[in-house]
Design brief:
This protein is mainly alpha-helical and 104 residues long. It has helices at residues 2-7, 12-30, 40-47, 52-68, 75-81, 97-100.
Amino acid sequence: MTYTAETRPDTAKTKRFLETGEMKILRKITSKTLLDRERSNNIRKTCKVDNINEWVLSRSREWNEHISRMDEGRIVRSARDKSPLGRRNTGRPRKRWCDNLTID
């Protein structure tokens, strides 16, 4: 789930996938089924686990703060802050990132 959180865009669909996966695991841990009609919040309290979407949001904030502390010349920071230049056909990315990055 961590890989999904770091690589997929933050959309409603992705959030739903993460929360569904989290609850499947937590229900197995607590030996509950959907037929038991136990609330997700109660299961999370039993397992002493926070909501996965809140955790993902905090991880992305921490990562952004980490990147912001880097020097301007770092490739990671320039890739985050800049967008590719140039034009391509509809539905294709503009250019490769390596074409726009300049290493000083």
